[in-house]
Write a structure and sequence with these properties.
The protein is of the alpha+beta class. The chain has helices spanning about 20-35, 80-90; strands at about 5-10, 15-20, 40-45, 45-50, 55, 70-75, 95-105, 110-115, 120-125, 140. β8 and β9 (about 120-125) form a beta hairpin. The model has no long low-confidence stretch (mean pLDDT about 85).
């Protein structure tokens, strides 16, 4: 049996986002993740996921959550063109504009775009300037004890 490779950063293990219409949200997030070069991880009848983000219906056994809305998620972009592509893809797949691509006053070099997803969550793509990553992600493997990663 092939082991599932996990890639994680340092702070967030996972985020669960509960949505009204799973199909509409899957269409939206598939499009923006495609623009950001983030592969979809998988899907089942009540969920879909990419990296640390799990999007689910309110009756999902895993999430057991309520639709609350008003979340802000900011996805990393590799360059300004990727922020622009995110914004175009989002608007073409059910998002409402919440801030066109451009420099923000938060700090020098902060280039971002904002949209509202089908549930009204504030979704952002941001490029903070040229940077070199030591690795694209952290690869986690199961230890000899067989514990969950």
């Amino acid at each position: 049996m092939e082991k599932q490779a996990l890639h994680r950063g340092r702070l967030i293990d996972h985020i669960g986002l509960v949505v009204r219409d799973l199909a509409a949200s899957k269409d939206f997030y598939s499009a923006v993740f495609g623009a950001l070069n983030i592969p979809m991880g998988g899907a089942d009848k009540s969920n879909f996921w990419a990296d640390e983000l799990f999007v689910s219906t309110s009756d999902s056994e895993e999430v057991q959550g309520e639709l609350t809305g008003r979340h802000h998620l900011a996805f990393q972009a590799q360059d300004r063109a990727m922020v622009d592509a995110f914004h175009r893809a989002a608007l073409a797949h059910g998002a409402r504009d919440n801030g066109a691509p451009g420099e923000r006053s938060y700090r020098p070099g902060y280039y971002a775009a904002f949209v509202l997803d089908p549930d009204g969550n504030n979704i952002e793509a941001v490029f903070r300037g040229e940077a070199h990553r030591s690795a694209p992600s952290v690869r986690i493997t199961r230890g000899a004890g067989g514990g969950a990663a």
